[in-house]
């Protein structure tokens, strides 16, 4: 079964990292992939998202037309900064895999959710 691993954090912490600290944290992330990809637990390599300042939000407007605004305007400190699609037998296994993610500056939490299948 597929599970979405949503990586939460404050992207302002990430952009404040020194180049050396960013490189160290990315080495930890690459090591995580090197551990789980050969084990067949990564269904999709995932995606790192650009900072919140690059986002656009589309909401339903009162007249039925979409309203587009800059950025994610929910009052949140943490936002989704990346996603990985896992292939695991069950939620417990997906949670065990996600629990090994290298949390650090700009990456403070990981949420695991089953991917809906409408087959």
Automatic annotation (TrEMBL):
It comes from the Bacteria. Residues 1-116 form the YCII-related domain. It holds the Pfam family YCII. InterPro entries: Dimeric_a/b-barrel, YCII. Belongs to the YciI family. This is YCII-related domain-containing protein.
């Amino acid at each position: 079964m597929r599970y979405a691993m949503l990586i939460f954090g404050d992207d302002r912490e990430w952009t404040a990292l020194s180049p050396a600290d960013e490189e160290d944290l990315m080495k930890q992330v690459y090591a995580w992939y090197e551990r789980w990809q050969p084990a067949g637990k990564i269904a999709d390599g995932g995606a790192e998202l650009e900072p919140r300042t690059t986002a656009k939000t589309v909401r339903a407007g009162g007249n039925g037309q979409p309203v587009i605004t800059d950025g994610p305007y929910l009052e949140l400190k943490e936002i989704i900064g990346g996603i990985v699609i896992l292939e695991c037998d069950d939620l417990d296994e997906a949670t065990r895999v996600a629990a090994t993610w290298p949390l650090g500056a700009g990456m403070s939490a990981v949420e695991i959710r089953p991917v809906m299948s409408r087959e």
